[in-house]
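FORM 7B: Structural annotation worksheet

SECTION A. Query
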Amino acid sequence: MASQRTATSKPLQADVDPTAYRKNRLEMLEAWEGRYPHKWLVTHTIAETREKGIGVSAGKRLDDEVCIAGRVRSVRRAGKALVFYDLEADSNRVQVICQAAQDGATQHGDCKFDEVHGRIRRFDHIGVRGCVGKSKTDELSIFATEVLLLAPCLHMMPAEQPGHQALKDQETRYRKRYLDLMMNEDVRRTFRIRAEIIDSIRRYLIDKDFVEVETPMMNMIPGGASARPFKTHHNELNMDLFMRVAPELYLKMLVVGGMHRVFEIGKNFRNEGIDLTHNPEFTACEFYMAYADYNDLMDMTEELLSGMVKRIKGSYVLQYHPDGPEGKTIDIDFEPPWPRFSMVEEIEAHSGTKLPRNFESEEARQALDDLAVRHKIDCPKPRTAARLLDKLCGHFIEEKIVNRPSFITDHPQIMSPLAKGHRSKPGLTERFELFVNGKELCNAYTELNDPVQQVRCFQDQGRQKAAGDDEAQDVDWDFVAALEHGLPPTGGWGCGIDRLTMFLADKNNIKEVILFPAMKPQQQHQHQQQHQQTDLDSGAAANSEQ
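SECTION B. Predicted structure
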């Protein structure tokens, strides 16, 4: 539609001067008696409207009337009697054709055609009533009989560039995610993928007779994972509490109580560093399944994640850019079965060193320390056996897992205070972590259900905490009491939703998959907010005086 696409009108001063744009739009609102209407009846989505137009011939229109609404992505004017809008909602667009000759139909109340359309700008919300049809050049369109401005955008928005992000500055994108979503379709696509991931996990577990539950976000003891907690204060109870680092202990109490298949999808909080793959507030899914062990959970993990990737991406193989969109491309193949590596045996094989299995001893800790020094592996203090093993695993195993999801299994007991000891490998546990491209996605194990052994493991953690490891866990005596009532053989599983989304949405920064990531305040940003608030307060005062 060449003639329509080039149609223009003389811009107002507010359209070309960014410093005047907001001021002039606010002045327009003061003179607009029908500003911010309460309701616009929407009878069809834009997607449904497009479906109605299938089969309509060029230059024809249907008799049925539709009412739609959305944001104006572009405005094109051909004189005073013809206006074209591109209207968008839910990532679908449709052209709207408004003609003054249409029986005066685009009037609203006593407003004339030029008054109605003279106040509409890009990114305003409008409501449109009209008939579905095709333009003479065969473009699906709504031939409007009524247009109403529902909510104006008071700020000048960046120009759109097909195939490119219109808003690129990361600080602005993360601090004002609403702008990011308005301007960048790829960002909206990322969070639709995230929603599909959560829906896939939920459907998979419910189909296997799991029950979704909610457990407390504030705990007296920060149990369930080795991590530094956030602290808060409960005024009514006059006591300090910890934001949960994991829901594990509560979920296992539910299994003790007879809820043999439970899961929870929710937030965890760990007062630790921020980098490309870590965020102190993150979303995870955990499930617990009575009468299952870690072998069953590995099979379920393969089934769940491979099926999810196939459904969302259309193939078991996804392309990922670990260094960003301009960097190298790697193919990650999720087709099961996936490789399984026993942690200590793999470290021994790659290092050529036989490790002792009594990892609680100083002798074993020193052997691990010597091995780390020999291979120039950095491990900050305190250099406990658990921390050294984690660093050695990262160096010898995790970094080599790139193109295939792989399980690292059989972690030492000293690293896994809540996991059950291995049935045939002394000093180790029946635990696995799933890694993809060097990043952990899942953690699971056969649950330790012996309350006496559980206390010993908690006490070992206490010794690590006394040695300076502030991520070690404390003894949770309420949980131990629950175990004394009988936890059946159980498998427990956890998966980080944010990291999983990073792979399926092809993002290398965790902030890209969190809608509102935590950001340090900026002085300039705060000043801008105060300035805008002052303007809004002034505008509100002026309106109240009218």
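SECTION C. Observations
The longest strand covers residues 61-77. Residues 2-157 form a domain with the OB fold (Dihydrolipoamide Acetyltransferase, E2P) fold (CATH 2.40.50.140).

SECTION D. Sign-off
Analyst initials: ____
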